[in-house]
Amino acid sequence: MIKNIYKYIINKLTLKKYKKCFGFIGEGSSIIHPLRISHGKNIYIGKEVEVHNLCWLAANPLTGNDKCQLIIDDGCVIGDFCHIYATKSIIIHKNVLFANGVYVSDNSHGFLNINIPIIRQQIVQKNSVEIGEGSWIGEHVCIIGASVGKNCVIGANSVVTHDIPDYCVAVGAPARVIKRFDIVSNTWVTPVSNVKSI
What we know:
Layout: H1 2-18, E1 24-25, E2 30-31, E3 36-38, E4 43-45, E5 50-51, E6 56-59, E7 69-72, E8 77-78, E9 83-86, E10 89-92, E11 97-98, E12 103-105, E13 107-109, E14 123-125, E15 129-131, E16 136-137, E17 142-144, E18 153-154, E19 159-160, E20 168-171, E21 176-182, E22 187-189
Parallel strand pairs: 1-4, 2-5, 3-6, 4-7, 5-8, 6-9, 7-10, 8-11, 9-12, 10-15, 11-16, 12-17, 16-18, 17-19, 18-20
Antiparallel strand pairs: 13-14, 20-21, 21-22
């Protein structure tokens, strides 16, 4: 009972504090001790979203896009120390769970010119990122310029640089699909390319 009252008070204070900071923040959402918020007016947060300790949320059009957006839809939970940095578009659909230390971006540092330190080179726009409804992103996953489908599991420490289809389990660096839900048989199956011959 006391915990629920405390959560209610914190949520109300959070909404009041951040309504002017973000493009939108929905009822019941809470942002706990953010590390940094960059260009908050381009960030849209749905209802009942939890953003935990020391996260960095950014929607900064560093690559010259007219429109830049970061959307975190209803019911998402973003773990501690996550960094989500959009220069064009990152959309996290409903009820996505991020473990701690997840990094998501639609951009990267340029490194084409070996005569210029990388820190001095231009930011390069990658593909827009979407994370499908109901997915679980494991601890310390990096997603860079790639999308993840619905109800996927991305294993801890994976690096996602290519799109992952709906209903998949993917692991590794670079991440590859190791299981996929087969709607016909109603079971999780191992893709043929991952089956080792004896």
